[in-house]
């Protein structure tokens, strides 16, 4: 299907997810390639951006790059609770990896929906 529809972001993203989560061998490099291709075709798919950010963190432990993709995901999908949950999980994990409390500058990175009550009312 992917070879027949190389420009279809849904097929690219689903295949990337298969390689990342479902495949018995977990082909992370292959998943990275297909997530990248899906994002090039549809840069406004928050779910794909979020999944790619998660993969970047797991595969490369590149906090800055993963954070950038998470922030883009939140910007393009501000109402998607899955995107927000993935970003929150990432922030929690990176805070634990640093083994210290978040500095005020890091707290400012959290989307305003979290600390202004928008999501709490949903």
TrEMBL record:
Top-rank lineage group of the source organism: Eukaryota
Protein's recorded name: Uncharacterized protein
Cited SMART domains: HAT
GO biological process: RNA processing
Biological source species: Gossypium aridum
């Amino acid at each position: 299907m992917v070879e027949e529809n190389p420009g279809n972001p849904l097929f690219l993203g689903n295949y990337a997810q298969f390689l990342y989560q479902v495949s018995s061998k977990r082909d992370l490099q292959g998943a990275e390639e297909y997530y990248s291709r899906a994002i090039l075709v549809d840069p406004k798919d928050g779910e794909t951006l979020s999944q790619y950010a998660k993969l970047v963190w797991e595969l490369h432990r590149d906090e800055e790059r993963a954070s950038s993709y998470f922030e883009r995901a939140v910007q393009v999908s501000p109402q998607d609770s899955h995107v927000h949950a993935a970003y929150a999980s990432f922030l929690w994990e990176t805070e634990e990896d640093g083994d210290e409390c978040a500095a005020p500058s890091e707290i400012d990175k959290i989307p305003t929906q979290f600390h202004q009550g928008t999501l709490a009312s949903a």
